[in-house]
């Protein structure tokens, strides 16, 4: 059902309240809940954490906006807590890593399929093939460290196969910068997509930086270090497609609209009634926050918010298995590389990136080491060895 952003005002900001018991709810079941319920949880936590990062950055640059930013940021802190705490303690850090990569693959694929700008769609396809390879490397690590089949988490929605090899993903920083959309000409859906994927990739980078040092196994520690570096590259890539000439208030307005857009999609697609009730509540909260920012935007910039926001939200990102699309992209584009902001054949890759990669991999590659001899089959390495 279409949602009119200007007619639906949501819950007023002063009525958005929580208690501690309210914040910490029963987590999902690791195996019994649908994998895409967990994907939505990880995605929406990432969007809330991006809201917090943006809000703090904006507050440091805009004294007059600090009170409003602080009020909305406190609510979004609690929204992020409720969402993130839905991941149960029965998930090992490595199992949660597998889930993060499923988010990166299937959500980015869903965005690439619906992105109206051909260049931006190419950016998303380029990134998803790298996350696809990360899934393969972490699945090998899960098998070998914990004796677990990654499909217990993936529920067979997402293939476990090599993508663009992680060892070949390391690029000079200049080759991670892309052409931004135009703030005046871009389709609103392109803006919502860009903010969504940037937030998801930033969260993945932060997660890997936090949990990588917790492993005792030296290969695991190195693998997290290697892939965290790629996730920083991905964050650089996705933030560079956002027009830097948008004002702070314009960006804030788009952030709030992006959250509304994604909560609305979660409400439409969620299969767990208890979790769907959380999405419905937070959709109502985000609509209230959006209209609070609309007033600020129109007061301070003397512009109509309809210049920035679509009246009716586009159809949601399809959060579902994208196996056939990913296989097609893998077959056609695995050998694409970057040269500046453009995508080129492997033989035309930037010399800067070739030199950068040679130095970084000069003492070996953890992503290659972890996958030596690994090929996913049903079961685990421990079971195969026992047989």
Q: How is this structure best described in words?
A:
- This protein has helices at residues 20-23, 35-61, 66-84, 93-114, 118-146, 151-154, 188-211, 218-240, 248-269, 273-301, 323-333, 351-360, 366-370, 381-386, and strands at 336-339, 342-345.
- The longest helix has 29 residues, at 118-146.
- With 387 residues, it is an all-alpha fold.
- A two-stranded antiparallel sheet has the order 1-2.
- The radius of gyration is 21 Å and the shape is globular.
- It is 61% helix and 2% strand.
- The mean pLDDT is 96.
List the keywords.
387 residues; 14 helices; mainly alpha; 61% helix; 2% strand
Structural class: mainly alpha
- Number of strand segments: 2
Rg is 21 Å
Tell me the overall shape.
globular
Strand content: under 5%
Strand order of the largest sheet: 1-2
Low-confidence stretches: none
Structure annotation, total helices: 14
Give a nutshell description of this structure.
With 387 residues, this protein is mostly helical. It has 14 helices and two strands; from the N terminus they run αααααααααααββααα. The chain is globular, with a radius of gyration of 21 Å.
Topology, element by element:
Layout: H1 20-23, H2 35-61, H3 66-84, H4 93-114, H5 118-146, H6 151-154, H7 188-211, H8 218-240, H9 248-269, H10 273-301, H11 323-333, E1 336-339, E2 342-345, H12 351-360, H13 366-370, H14 381-386
Antiparallel strand pairs: 1-2
Helix pairs in contact: 2-3, 2-4, 2-7, 2-9, 3-10, 4-5, 4-7, 5-8, 5-11, 7-8, 7-9, 9-10
